[in-house]
Specification:
Layout lengths: L13 H14 L3 H34 L13
Helix pairs in contact: 1-2
C-alpha cells in the first residue's frame, strides 16, 4: 500500500468525543491518531470473528430460501 486512505469518523456520543479528546490531550497526540489506534485495536480483536459471524448468518439465511437482500444483518446502512 503506497498511501493510507482516509476515513471520516463520527463518535456515537458527546461523551465518546470527550473521551477521545482527553486521550489526545493526555498523550500529546491528535484526535485522528487516537481514533486510528482505536480502529486498529478493534480490527485486531474483532475482524475475524465479525466476518465469521456474518458468513454464518448468510449461510443460515440461504438455507431459508429468502434472498439475502431481504434480511437486515444488523450492519450500518
Amino acid at each position: 500500500m503506497d498511501k493510507n486512505e482516509r476515513l471520516t469518523c463520527t463518535p456515537h456520543s458527546k461523551q465518546e468525543y470527550e473521551m477521545v479528546q482527553l486521550l489526545a490531550d493526555l498523550s500529546g497526540n491528535t484526535l485522528s491518531y487516537i481514533v486510528s489506534q482505536a480502529l486498529h485495536e478493534y480490527l485486531k480483536n474483532n475482524f475475524a470473528s465479525e466476518v465469521k459471524r456474518y458468513q454464518e448468518v448468510e449461510h443460515l439465511l440461504n438455507e431459508t430460501g429468502i434472498p439475502l437482500h431481504l434480511h437486515d444483518l444488523g450492519g450500518d446502512k
